[in-house]
Design a protein that fits this description.
Layout lengths: L11 H7 L3 H7 L15 H7 L4 H14 L27
Length: 95
């Protein structure tokens, strides 16, 4: 399901992880949240205010990128993967 709006509580870090196409929008606006440790705390509104850009226009561009991203069905980067309890090759299990 394509997003109809940006969750106002979602961090820019999660948006970029969940919808990688949004990274281009960030770069185009010279928002350097990519890899920034503050990105996990900043919402779209916070980032727009910190970088003095129009929040409505920025949000519209992000939403368009989110809707066009082929990975738009991806789960949240912060959700655990209960469907894959097995460690990957070369990893040790914590159990």
């Amino acid at each position: 399901m394509k997003p109809s709006a940006i969750d106002p509580d979602m961090s820019v870090d999660e948006i970029m992880r969940r919808w990688p196409a949004t990274i281009r929008v960030m770069i185009r606006h010279r928002i350097l949240c990519i890899g920034c440790p503050i990105g996990i705390f900043h919402t779209v509104a916070d980032a727009a205010a910190a970088h003095a850009i129009d929040e409505a226009a920025f949000s519209a561009e992000l939403l368009a990128a989110m809707r066009s991203d082929p990975s738009e069905e991806a789960p949240s980067a912060f959700e655990t993967n209960a469907h894959n309890p097995e460690p990957r090759k070369g990893e040790q299990s914590c159990a």
